[in-house]
């Protein structure tokens, strides 16, 4: 029997099943092995939290930033990136304070984003938050599958093009590469818990720095070769595109930048892996400052150097803009790093969704062995693996579904824009602001309340514009697209 802020009396039946019955008995004094909520002691720290954040933030979104700046120009592009970074940092700090209800050190823990909304806001907002969060996580997994397949194809085409001396156009289908990525994720998705992903996050974070640095280096080399900085103050000009296209593309660019900063969606889950003392909020805020600062520097360098290298012709995926130029092996390394990073990022984003469904199912059918029985599988040289049949079937089905949808809609840039637009305002701004107002009991119509509402309203307008631009892009793509037959 273990007790803590949230649960737990465990009943052991003679079939070795374990059922948790929640009892809100208040926090107890933590021991060497267990935290104050009765769970096994958390081991996360500043560095693992930073690795999770960097893995989530410096995703494939960094590759679309040169294109985004090309739509906005040298003035608006960098300004919007700085604004998004500030808003992300500020609202993430508000959200970090919502991990515990009441006292920031001993208060009841909120294990997920939905739990935090339930504790601070309650009502219909909980279901709305869950719907938006998990829909967004589902969409991100599709975006990452598309991004990884594009990078795998780039390696194949680069080698093919090099071997043929430029004679073979090397058009290939994306489908086999999406399947390869999907099979890899099926295996990795069997890692039971978020806190067991720390090694994958650190590897993915290293990979993100690798390909970002290569993209930056190639951008600098291209600028040196051109002998000047390309681009203009206002971005791609009317004439190269129509006035309507300029507007839609500018809106889509905002969605791409929003997507590049989106990680609030899993912030509470990351924070729940951090040990204390010091308080989890304190560690999380430090990790947020560090991670957002590092990613903003990388974003500014990659986005601006990419735009300086290609000007208005900056590609949707920065690394594809260098085509098949030498050193082609360097591009291969960069694209391989993207694939490894996205393999890890996919897991970081999907684990909260996996856990939510598994917890709900176990609560609905606690007597069903298929949902609740844990089977110990011995692995020579390692500790036993805990197999759950429902987890195996559900997570495999999820990965197969996201892979199939990716094969149907392989529009990387537009999908990224839509995901950024859908998740940015509600999850990065609205809920953190509302929870902060509720938690701190900020009076209505006070100066602080008005400032927070103006911030929220401004971000809502940006999100709507970004969604409209990205949807318009998908509509244009669909006009010339044939399902399962896309080749590059």
Automatic annotation (TrEMBL):
Residues 43-475 form the Amino acid transporter transmembrane domain. Keywords: Amino-acid transport, Cell membrane, Membrane, Symport, Transmembrane, Transmembrane helix, Transport. The chain crosses the membrane at residues 46-69, 75-99, 134-155, 197-221, 287-308, 328-349, 392-412, 418-437, 449-476. It is found in: Cell membrane. The keyword Zinc-finger does not apply. One of its GO terms (molecular function) is symporter activity. GO terms for biological process: amino acid transport. GO terms for cellular component: plasma membrane. Its main location: membrane. InterPro entries: AA_transpt_TM (IPR013057). Belongs to the amino acid/polyamine transporter 2 family. Amino acid/auxin permease (AAAP) (TC 2.A.18.2) subfamily. This is Amino acid transporter transmembrane domain-containing protein. It comes from Stephania japonica.
